[in-house]
């Protein structure tokens, strides 16, 4: 016998009216109000579907017809099972629970993904490097590292991204959108993680602490890593033009502008230009007189947080920078640098008129008065100490 998807063809044609749904008809599924839904026995029918139901569902999928409508939001679905799962969004029902931690989920698939956080199972592995993942979507994103694929591009500047979430964050740099706001002070942020970091200013929470000196940080472990370099002396970022090294990338980037002369940030009051936006902000306070950082012990106020930090050490006596040769401690890294030159004999500041060399700029300036002027060859570009580029 000729068959159509497992059904005798003649029988299927005779019962075609049972399977084809008129375009004017719609199965009505009531919303989260709890009123009965139609068909009344839809749930029972799904448990033991007849052949006609199988064929009906197949025809719906093949035509893409969405006959099940949610009365809460109007969204439509091709199957009753699909609308049942969807309506849990409105009802809040989460029938699937984790036996280990009790967390509940809307679908069994979500529960399965969650359970892998307990078991450590990572069934999806990369064929190129062997790295494994708990979700197929994570593997897809990872594989773009190998292929170089960046399918999400900004329609304003053309920049491309690996993930749609990265594009969304980037687009906020154009729109200025900051959807995350602090409920205590009203300050807004483009990312939720930045809001979380900011809120620690209000709560005083400092989750990251140094195991050598005990200093704590409210923001990510990145700031702790930078701080720990003050103990180890590590400066992994080196300038390819003069060889000077820095303990963080931002400091290197600012330094490199002393070679290129780039000063992209200009003061609209006096016209002075700066290498970073943070340095411009600090400079503008010389016009406004703003000193937003105050000492909670003596009340003295400062223009930058780094100045406040240095001042607070006069109260605490803290000297976090120590010489690895003699053990002497210092309040600032610049004081330590000057001290270390006594051990090394380094004198980087030289007078172009007589050739005499000095370990610090202050001594050279004092010497230049003998010649009755300033030594133009010894000038080093002055950069404002700002919170973004200075590590105390």
UniProtKB/TrEMBL annotation:
The segment annotated Disordered runs over 25-60
Q: What is its main location?
A: nucleus
Ordered alphabetically, the record's keywords are: DNA-binding, Metal-binding, Nucleus, Repeat, Transcription, Transcription regulation, Zinc, Zinc-finger
**UniProt superkingdom:** Eukaryota
Q: Which SMART domains match?
A: ZnF_C2H2
Q: Which Pfam families match?
A: zf-C2H2
Places the protein is found:
Nucleus
UniProt-recorded Gene Ontology molecular function terms: DNA-binding transcription factor activity, RNA polymerase II-specific; RNA polymerase II cis-regulatory region sequence-specific DNA binding; zinc ion binding
Q: Family, per the entry?
A: Belongs to the krueppel C2H2-type zinc-finger protein family.
Alphabetical list of PANTHER family matching this protein: GASTRULA ZINC FINGER PROTEIN XLCGF7.1-LIKE-RELATED (PTHR23235:SF160), KRUEPPEL-LIKE TRANSCRIPTION FACTOR (PTHR23235)
Q: What is this protein called?
A: C2H2-type domain-containing protein
The species is Salmo trutta (Brown trout)
Task: State the taxonomy lineage.
Answer: Eukaryota, Metazoa, Chordata, Craniata, Vertebrata
